TrEMBL record:
Transmembrane segments: none annotated. Residues 37-223 form the Metallo-beta-lactamase domain. PANTHER family: DNA INTERNALIZATION/COMPETENCE PROTEIN COMEC/REC2, RECOMBINATION PROTEIN 2. It holds the Pfam family Lactamase_B. The lineage of its organism: Bacteria, Bacillati, Bacillota, Bacilli, Lactobacillales. It comes from Marinilactibacillus psychrotolerans. It comes from the Bacteria. This is ComEC/Rec2 family competence protein. InterPro entries: ComA-like_MBL, Competence_DNA_uptake, Metallo-B-lactamas, RibonucZ/Hydroxyglut_hydro.
Length: 266
């Protein structure tokens, strides 16, 4: 009886391993666009885009989508309305078919934001303004988008939407520009450790950054940065955890997940 039980557990384990191995790959690119964010996630024929960099970055991202044969974006997620996150969105909305747009619950009076709003209107789109956690799935990945929990913050960065992605055994966290107040919320909103972290706010250290890193405990971390960044303290804190760190200023970063492990190429 014991032998049969052990065999059945082993077979179940093999079955689970086979299911994970059969997952459609999740491919992610982090663009080298200076101290700005734009990330494209592809899973089968579905595409999710998180942020669009600055105004001048829009065309580069459109060109990448065209080169990859991507004709439609299933979800465009704008974490917040700083120019280095929303600036290129109008260009993409004007040139690429976008199905859904997710934004935080606040407005801005900046030129980049107003151009984004105009492009949305011209595309006949209405953004989904997140006030509650939203979940959706692609072919083999599940996405959870966490909104800010407070109506007003001292820093606009703390309005950042935070995106968690699960693909088989791999977990990815995209933390926008979250600063101290938002990081505290994120630690309560999310659970467990992550395979890869998009480091918040281009590697700027917040009072609770080290606690956040210890909670997330990423194997890999991506910092979207330019030559003007000073992220030494953040790099040091992550290195103490054994995290492998990549900086976008050194080139585009491509990540591929098969559900069991990930490969990072720069």
């Amino acid at each position: 009886m014991v032998t049969a039980f052990v065999v059945s557990i082993a077979l179940a384990g093999c079955s689970l391993q086979s299911q994970v191995s059969a997952l459609e790959s999740l491919n992610i690119i982090f663009f080298k666009i200076g101290r700005a964010d734009s990330i494209v996630l592809s899973n089968g024929d579905q595409t999710i885009v998180i942020n669009k960099g600055e105004e001048e970055d829009g065309e580069e991202i459109v060109e990448y989508l065209e080169e990859e044969g991507i004709e439609s974006i299933d979800y465009l997620i704008i974490t917040h309305f700083d120019k280095d996150h929303v600036g290129g969105a109008d260009t993409v909305l004007n040139e690429v078919d976008v199905q859904n747009v997710l934004v935080p619950d606040y407005e801005s009076d900046s030129t980049d934001y107003l151009e984004f709003v105009t492009a949305m209107e011209e595309a006949g789109l209405t953004a989904t303004v997140l006030t509650e956690t939203l979940e959706f799935s692609t072919e083999s990945a599940s996405f959870t988008v966490y909104p800010p929990e407070t109506d007003a913050y001292e820093s606009e960065n703390d309005y950042s939407l935070v995106v968690s992605v699960e693909h088989g055994e791999n977990r990815f966290l995209f933390a926008g520009d979250a600063e101290e107040a938002r990081l505290e919320e994120v630690m309560n909103q999310t659970e467990g450790e992550y395979t890869l972290l998009k480091v918040p706010h281009h590697g700027r250290l917040a009072a609770n950054s080290e606690t956040f890193f210890e909670t997330v405990n990423p194997e890999y971390a991506i910092i979207t940065s330019s030559d003007k960044n000073t992220e030494e303290e953040v790099v040091s804190a992550l290195e103490e955890l054994g995290t492998t760190i990549y900086l976008t200023r050194e080139g585009n970063i491509q990540v591929s997940s098969n559900g069991n492990s990930i490969q990072v190429v720069q």
